[in-house]
Here is the input.
Amino acid sequence: MDLPLHVLIISSLIKIVVVVHLLLIGVMAMILAERKVSGWIQDRHGPNRVGPWGILQPIADGIKFLLKEDLIPDHVDKPIYLLAPAIILVPALVTCGVVPFGSSITISGYEIPLQIADINIGVLYILAITSLGVYGVVLGAWASNNKYSLLGGLRSSAQMISYELTLGLSLIGVLMLSSSLSLRDIAIQQGGYPWTWNFLIHFPAFLAFTTAAFAETNRLPFDLAEAEQELVGGYHTEYSSMKFAMYFMAEYMHMIVGSAVAVTLFLGGWQFFGLEKIGGPFWSGIISFGIFFTKTAFFLFVFIWVRWTLPRFRYDQLMNLGWKFLLPIALTTIVVTGTVWAFTQSKLLVAILNVVAAAIVVAIVATTLVMTREPEPVDDRGVLSFTEESSS
Amino acid sequence: MALQYYLILSALLFTIGVIGVLIRRNAIIIFMCIELMLNAANLAFVAIGRELGDASGQIFVFFVMTVAAAEVAIGLAIIVSVFRHRETINIDEINTMKG
Amino acid sequence: MAEQILFIIFGILAVGSAICVIAFRNPIHSALALVLTFFSLAGLFISLGAYFVAAVQVIVYAGAIMVLFLFVIMLLNLGRLQTTRQINKAKVFAVIVGILLAAEAIYIGIKAYDGTAVSPAQGESQAVGAAITSEQLNRISEIESTYHLDRTEINSTYVPEVSEQKSTVETLTASEANLLIAKLQGEMGKPDRIGTILFTKFLLPFEVTSLVLLAALIGVIVLVKREDTDTAA
Amino acid sequence: MSKDLITILLISPLIGFLINGLFGKWLKNVSGWIASLAVLISFIISAFFVFPAVRGGGELKETLYEWIPIRSLDIGFHVDALTTVMLLVITGVGFLIHIYSIGYMSHDSGKARYFAYLNLFVFAMLILVLGNNYLMMFIGWEGVGLCSYLLIGYWFDRKSATDAGKKAFIVNRIGDFGFLLGMFTLFAAFGTLNFDQMFGLAETNTYEQVFGASTLIVATLLLFVGAVGKSAQIPLYVWLPDAMEGPTPVSALIHAATMVTAGVYMVARSSILFNLAHTGVVVAWIGVLTALFAATMALAANDIKRVLAYSTVSQLGYMFVGVGVGAYTSGIFHLMTHAFFKGLMFLTAGSVMHAMADELDMRKMGGLKSKLPITYWTFLIGALAIAGFPLLSGFWSKDEILHNAWDGGHQIIFGIGLLTAFLTAFYMFRLIFVVFHGESRVDSEVESHLHESPPVMWIPLVLLAIPSLIIGAIVGWGGEHSAMHHFLESVKGFKHHGIADHSNPIPFMIISSIVGIAGILAAWFIYRSKAPVDEPTNPLHKLLANKYYIDEIYNAVFVQPIRGVSHYLFWKIMDVGIIDGLVNLTAFIIRGIGGSIRRLQTGVVQAYVVSMVIGIIIFLGYYLFIR
Here is the structure.
């Protein structure tokens, strides 16, 4: 099983290069897909000028970004202003290091797992790295020395911190049942059949996780940070050219990585009805990667689909959703999963009771909210109103 | 790696934190320096725990972090409310508690 | 070897960024330098085998505590409060005091471990090929009970790693047993081991800490909540 | 199993106390029922202990908690037949009195406090009788003393009540001091306070001779001083009549049925020591003198509750005669019957008070028989029982004590006892004739409100009247071979070898019957139609009515001199001059020092930190380089 050192280094290097490039290509594909899908949803054509069916559009966009004038405003805090776009990009890239994107591939006798590093604290690692994403936003916003940027940045970081809790807590149930933090182990344990995947066993947690992942990317319907109408683009108002492109890419990378993690943790990873075992030791790896790719692509499609069909939240609605619905649901799944597992060890019961408990929690919270609802605030007092929402 | 290198590093970090507390006037920086000192202690805990083959060192670090989180929350809240009253967090100007 | 490299890189990074924390004039820059220090410490924890602690270090310190610091600095707009750097007698005195403290602390660091103290893992040097001693067996069962490990699991997972042919602890030689103990102890930073000990031996402190957190939570809300009497609807 | 039983038995009133004490404000009318329920639970469990099997065949010893590991002072329990009798009396009578209190206290605003105290009292009393060592007993002893104090002074807005509470507390303290000294002596002699260990050592004569050969004599006499205080014997009886200031159910529970009998229980529990030290005769003499003394005072008292209080003192004297002459079973038997009929009589007195708007003076009563029939009949049963009317409960127990006194060779004690029995019958029926018979001397306004008590009050009366009638015959029939003797046979030390074979009991029964009936008849002749005089003219009568001037003598001999010394020596010179002077000097010095050090307090955090760090450096330097 253990690979010789030189094979390990070479294979790791190759994997890193491949993954990074896949991500970059993925970003380009996503830009195109986003525009195409939005076109279909809005019953129009979408890009169709550059290349056949407009598939070269992302490249044109990229060239446009590169060739634009790179403005650095006078009043910014220069080192941090320059650092922020990099900081936001790095966590997205680094997270990929532990995501298993296929079973394993055998080349000249060496069985190489399709994963850059299978570390025993994989999930913790992902949570740790995710928690850093907020720095890019908040620093960029602050360094811009612009009121609207700062407001957007504060909004977005408050949002990210709030939803990070849900993100982490919704995974606890999964971790409890798989009793491992290694993403590969968790993926393998789910087995090849959709009804044994975690998203059924932990359905409320899956919903909470997905919603939180949406919120973490700062995309519609959670794009309060950018909020073009109010904040002129939010934290990246002052960025232009390639630095803006980095923010842009980071958003898509977050989407891709989030989808990949969700697929690994909840949708059985690269497994699908035993399809991943067909073929030899080499081809099975390729097929498993294909399965993983397809699942991730489907998830990404959901991302785009949601963006173009749901309206945006108001800020207090966003915070309510995060703190009063998703967080209680995540906490409930922990309690229910733990209790049921301690007594019966029946996954079916866990699944059923999770859903029931989550429904009860949602009902209770909703009732309380309706009962205690106060008149809507007349004027929007801006970004910090959430701290005073309850008392106003 | 011998234990003493870690201990020396820990001592250095701790002292940097102490010096920071002594020379800076900004309450938030002083607070950060205290966090630095806590982290220096954490490093010593983990290193000694490794040397003794005892996981208690790491458990201690875990507890220190938890308490540090609580402490930071409270401390920052105090700083915020002080700032609201006096428009400053320069500790030279916050000296009403003298005899 | 790897550990030495990691130690040198992260050690220099930690000290350098720590100095930056107290040297930078802008609080935001100081905060960022502190984040870097925390990262280097996380790296050091990894090199010490404390994976769980390293991850928690990043999550708690870098992901939560420092963000809170940044928030407060930005909310209060403290960046503008950069005091001009001035060197006065008090500061010089403080630095001298600090250096004295450092000297003593480093002295302790050197003295505390003079290389003769032997960790329980090693024990006395054994003759090559001598059978496992009862002391080592006790040590192994002690580890088992602390971390709720299973003897069969050790036999099947860890024993082959120290000696390929053998499959039970009792058949090991003394030196192999030392290796085994070192291996078992080396993995104490793994999350499952930490969890086991945290929820058994340290359950009460753990619960007490949660109370501390609750108290802090309530305290913060009480401290920061404004009395909104004037804008009452 | 048994351990759990004991724990529940003990904890139940404690929980009742906590509930009433902490949440009483919101409980209002429920508090009484909670308190009663708590005691009922204890009673039910106590009832189980009647069967020796539950006690593991005789004695049950459980250690709940090791308190002071040195010399094994444990929180441990010891349940034998004697304890069981006490448990039944405490919880059984206690439960009925709790129920009665619900009615009696229904108009009182602070009843949650009342019931909390009552439950605490039951708890302390249970500790007293359950403990397996003298220390536990002492804890309960002090606990009941505290509750007694609290309950006597329950109506703390009345000065007489608080004074009576203080008096009880202080007088008891004298006795407790004796108990403590006795305990210390025993501990010094035996190295343990555990009953089993100590009695075992005593029987084999292996103990330190702290006071030489008379160690045991001194120890038992000191213990008896404690008993004298708690059980209101000469010369420390003075607190009990005053204790009647408390609510009447309290008088019934604490100052008739349970707490005051703790002294008897203690002597009975220490029976082995008393047997070895041969100090029983002192106990018997003190007891019989108290019995006579108190009975004479009861003759001239005009306050119903005071009559009952003197009667209690007198009957306690009887019990001490019983345990003093070595007839422990008879003493405990009388304790039990007395708990029933004296509790009953106090409660009926309470019922009379209830009807008469808290009037206690029997000169203002008369002819209440028709207005308060249940009260009258139950009181009559109690009075017949205490008077030794043949075949009622008091007859059996009192007769046994007198019989044993005669058989033990104490003919004088027997004689005085007989005289007391006559007096007892006399003053009890004096009370009955004056209060219930004859013409009504009740105020017309009060008379219009006269009414029988509600069921919650008269049902306990009836329930207490039944055992007052028959319990004596049931457990006492057959003298030496009665159920009571069989039951208590297993208790160590109760078989006193000093007592010779018993003579025929029939003559004694006949004599005491005649004496009792004679007393009743005498009362009938004198008080059949006549009220007591307002101002006694006869000097003997005057002496009795003024309680032999004992309170005044105590006041002149003890209280005034101590007060004088305290005022001039301890307050004016010691307290004001020396102690206050020292305190003021200290404050002066501190203020001076503080004034000069204050300037170090700059308010600058860093200055503090620097000094802290310098301190650390110095300490580290000392430990690293110098040591």
